[in-house]
Design goal:
CATH superfamily: MetI-like
Radius of gyration: 21 Å
Family: Belongs to the binding-protein-dependent transport system permease family.
Largest sheet: none
Distance between the termini: 59 Å
Number of helices: 10
GO biological process, one term: transmembrane transport
Protein name: ABC transporter permease
Keywords: Membrane, Transmembrane, Transmembrane helix, Transport
Organism: Marinibacterium profundimaris
Shape: globular
Length: 235
């Protein structure tokens, strides 16, 4: 049996040599995750900003629901998307099940509440600060919303990075709707689970190292954005 040092060396060798299978899996993972985060931001940023900036009946309930949905169990989301996309489901004719598109849908459902809830909090805090200025200038609801989104843009970049970190580490939902099909829907997290169960620790560890590096990059990005935001606030 190969030693731990030998497995680690083999894993690093896969990364440094640019193993074709490893690159394919990483590229698909990034494509699915970035697509889901983009869609989540398109939906979640304006939704969260509207709840944070506007006053309307049911606003508090929507805020509570968004916060609650941040803890959606991935396997439940995966099952719900599976039922919707299966042959007997309402979207079965689209034949999206066991495709990257199904994985993007599942990840979007998981990430959108996170983006919306964090955006709501950021915009609401900023709205309290600028509410008197908006009132004195007679700024309308849409201009108010766009102004808050623009002024909070650095903080919202942190929100997007948080969504990316959540999506790239997802395994339960994408396993259910993607099926972990080789060369089709096999991403980093599902491959790690599969290859570990098969005893192929070299590939599993190599992907784990890449995933860890991505997590470090995302966290470094969040810290850098916060630093820029802090310097801008004191400027």
């Amino acid at each position: 049996m190969q030693s731990e040092h030998g497995i680690l060396a083999a894993a690093l060798g896969l990364i440094l040599s640019g193993d074709a299978d490893l690159i394919e899996i990483v590229v698909l993972s990034l494509r699915v995750t970035l697509s889901a985060v983009l869609l989540s931001c398109v939906i979640g940023l304006p939704l969260g900003a509207a709840v944070g900036a506007w006053r309307f009946p049911g606003r508090g309930l929507i805020a509570v629901v968004l916060n609650a949905l941040m803890g959606l169990p991935p396997v439940v989301v995966g099952l719900a998307v599976y039922l919707m996309l299966s042959a007997a489901g309402p979207f079965g004719p689209l034949r999206l099940l066991y495709t990257p598109s199904a994985m993007i849908i599942a990840q979007t459902i998981l990430v959108t509440p996170i983006v919306a809830a964090l955006t709501r909090q950021a915009v609401e805090d900023m709205d309290r600060e600028y509410s008197e200025q908006f009132a004195s200038l007679g700024v309308g609801p849409m201009r108010r919303l766009s102004a808050l989104l623009w002024d909070a843009r650095i903080g919202l970049l942190t929100v997007a990075l948080a969504g990316f970190g959540r999506a790239v580490a997802e395994v339960g939902a994408v396993m259910i709707v993607g099926g972990n099909i080789n060369h089709v829907t096999r991403v980093m997290t599902t491959t790690i689970a599969l290859e570990t169960s098969k005893g192929n620790l070299q590939l599993a560890l190599a992907l784990g190292v890449v995933l860890l590096m991505l997590a470090l990059i995302v966290n470094a990005g969040v810290m850098a954005v916060r630093g820029v935001s802090a310097r801008a606030a004191h400027a």
